[in-house]
DNA sequence: AATAGGCCCAACCGCTCTAGT
DNA sequence: TACTAGAGCGGTTGGGCCTAT
């Protein structure tokens, strides 16, 4: 194996926070003579530190070209974009952000950006919609609330989609609808491949759910391109929701949306409805930079496989519809995917 | 006002990579 | 080619600070 770390075996070497005096010794020495061999620097500079500690202190804190202060929006976008391309290659990412250190970027990612992406339903590792089930937390309650609406319950043929829309706010309703379809498609005796599609829907729904969804963040999320999903542009979340909510409107109105938007459907009887994935807007792709990745329009079949030919009304206008759905959610929540 | 819990970030640890011999 | 020293990288930690109770 490799040799032992440089600081091991150097008894009496100081560790921990640097004092201003130590900083001055280090800065003065490097500015006068350069760092040369980091191993020998501490002794030459009169510091009781190991060379590695000196190097880190200099590169992460004392270097004169280090930029301090909050990360700008542009920097944030760039970090997310680069991370989608490079992963945790912090030093590589840092080379694209002048004045920022790998350590600083790494910390910022772990404390801010990672959580931000998670909150948007995007896996910060893969930059794809999350495939864990934490997003489902609270949904049984939502579903239960929805199922209580109308007194006699919704597990009847009297499902009133418009009334429910009044009861549950529109965004939650849209989220619910995505879940309904995905769960009835994906749930089964074993985790189904349709879960990715569920999460794709959730990501879109989440954007709508939070109203102020960070569109810029979504622009930066390259999960779509990296995984042959349709490009997600700044308009995609909204448009995606339009697509879903439009589908629902189609149910209640029985018309108004072309078959190319929603697929052939029959609002009165509750028949098949097809979700067609949103496709990229070329101009927006250009505006978003693209980072050298393709921004082509994607065939409308790839990302929502398994979500096509929706049978929402068939799924729900049955006595067992809600019961089954809740059982499926219960199973999903208790499963490890 | 006290304190517990969470957050943030500088610094450390352990490993890999690279260059020199 | 094999070995070693030094540098660099990414993951993790610990302590100070902030906030909620």
TrEMBL record:
Subcellular location: Nucleus
Sorted UniProt keywords: DNA-binding, Nucleus, Repeat, Transcription, Transcription regulation
Keyword Repeat set for record: yes
Pfam family, one: Myb_DNA-binding
Gene Ontology CC terms: nucleus
Keyword Secreted tagged: no
Annotated CDD domains: SANT (cd00167)
HTH myb-type domain boundaries: 10-62, 63-117
Domain Myb-like: 10-62, 63-113
PANTHER family: MYB FAMILY TRANSCRIPTION FACTOR, OS06G0112700 PROTEIN
Protein name: Transcription factor MYB39
Organism: Aegilops tauschii subsp. strangulata (Goatgrass)
């Amino acid at each position: 194996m490799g040799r032992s770390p440089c600081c091991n075996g150097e008894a009496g070497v100081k560790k921990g926070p640097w004092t201003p005096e130590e900083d001055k010794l280090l800065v003065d020495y490097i500015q006068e003579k350069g760092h040369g061999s980091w191993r020998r620097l501490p002794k030459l500079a009169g510091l009781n530190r190991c060379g590695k500690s000196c190097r880190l202190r200099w590169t992460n804190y004392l270097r004169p070209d280090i930029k301090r202060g909050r990360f700008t929006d542009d920097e944030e976008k760039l970090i997310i974009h680069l991370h989608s391309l490079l992963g945790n290659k912090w030093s590589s990412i840092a080379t694209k952000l002048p004045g920022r250190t790998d350590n600083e970027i790494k910390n910022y990612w772990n404390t801010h950006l990672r959580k931000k992406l998670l909150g948007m339903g995007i896996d910060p590792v893969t930059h794809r919609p999350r495939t864990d089930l934490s997003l489902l937390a609270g949904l049984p309650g939502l579903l239960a609330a929805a199922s209580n609406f109308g007194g006699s319950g919704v597990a009847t043929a009297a499902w009133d989609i418009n009334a429910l829309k009044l009861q549950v706010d529109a965004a939650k309703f849209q989220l619910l609808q995505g879940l309904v379809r995905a769960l009835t498609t994906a749930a089964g005796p074993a985790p189904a491949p349709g879960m990715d599609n569920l999460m794709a829907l959730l990501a879109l729904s989440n954007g709508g759910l939070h109203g102020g969804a960070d569109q810029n963040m979504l622009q930066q999320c390259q999960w779509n391109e990296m995984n042959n999903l349709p490009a997600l542009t700044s308009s995609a979340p909204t448009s995606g929701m339009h697509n879903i909510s439009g589908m629902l409107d189609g149910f209640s109105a029985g018309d108004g949306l072309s078959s190319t938007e929603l697929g052939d459907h029959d609002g009165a009887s509750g028949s098949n409805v097809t979700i067609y994935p949103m496709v990229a807007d070329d101009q927006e792709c250009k505006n978003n930079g693209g980072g050298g990745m393709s921004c082509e329009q994607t065939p409308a079949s790839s990302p929502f496989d398994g979500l096509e030919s929706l049978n929402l009304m068939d799924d729900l206008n049955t006595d067992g519809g809600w019961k089954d759905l809740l059982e499926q959610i219960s199973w999903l929540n208790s499963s490890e995917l």
